[in-house]
User: Which sequence fits this backbone?
């Protein structure tokens, strides 16, 4: 390919076309940029779809999680990305996020705080506001259900103890794990975090429903009350 020349995907060699490359060699050999190029289909007059995809990825340091946070208007700021292409990128990344969440939910048993993090990070780890969730389990620590208890502003959220245990009794849960996110990224539990943990644990003891852990979750890491002995 001569310097400064442009060829659309249809003019590339068979080995270079992202769609054909996927069909001939499989999805795993494609780069992130090539996968995004398939989504957007074409570039602009002066830039191929793959080069455009590389430029978009470079703007977020090739971090797909960061790319997934870009809004429709932010994606449309890239020359060559209109509304339809931006929507395709957003939809594909959202499907990936949901798939990740469903895959970890299929884990039959919770045996560590890391598994809890893997279940909840796709759900609350990247939110700009705080949410409080409960994971309900049976006596084998198998997940029966997980549900959002409350949703608040970035400064905090409210927790209704009665709702927590009403749901537990309705579905026959014998153990709970508390989870909430810190949009600020800090993993240090606040006094309020400690207080609600003690309150829920005390209420659970009286109903013979164990509160096994409380996780503070951020985008990349977590804090486990049980691991740190704060129980």
Assistant:
């Amino acid at each position: 390919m001569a310097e400064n020349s442009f060829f659309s995907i249809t003019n590339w060699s068979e080995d270079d076309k992202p769609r054909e490359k996927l069909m001939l060699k499989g999805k795993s050999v494609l780069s992130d940029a090539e996968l995004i190029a398939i989504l957007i289909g074409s570039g602009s007059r002066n830039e191929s779809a793959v080069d455009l995809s590389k430029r978009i990825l470079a703007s977020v340091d090739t971090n797909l999680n960061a790319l997934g946070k870009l809004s429709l208007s932010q994606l449309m700021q890239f020359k060559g990305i209109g509304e339809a292409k931006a929507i395709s990128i957003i939809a594909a990344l959202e499907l990936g996020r949901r798939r990740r969440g469903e895959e970890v939910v299929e884990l039959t048993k919770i045996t560590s705080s890391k598994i809890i993090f893997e279940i909840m990070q796709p759900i609350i780890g990247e939110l700009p506001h705080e949410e409080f969730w409960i994971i309900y389990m049976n006596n084998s620590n198998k997940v029966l259900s997980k549900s959002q208890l409350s949703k608040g502003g970035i400064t905090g959220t409210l927790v209704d103890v009665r709702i927590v245990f009403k749901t537990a009794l309705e579905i026959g849960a014998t153990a709970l794990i508390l989870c909430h996110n810190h949009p600020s990224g800090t993993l240090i539990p606040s006094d309020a975090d400690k207080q609600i943990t003690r309150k829920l644990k005390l209420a659970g003891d009286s109903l013979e429903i164990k509160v096994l852990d409380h996780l503070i979750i951020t985008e990349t890491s977590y804090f486990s009350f049980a691991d740190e002995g704060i129980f």
About this structure: Confidence is low (pLDDT under 50) at residues 1-6.
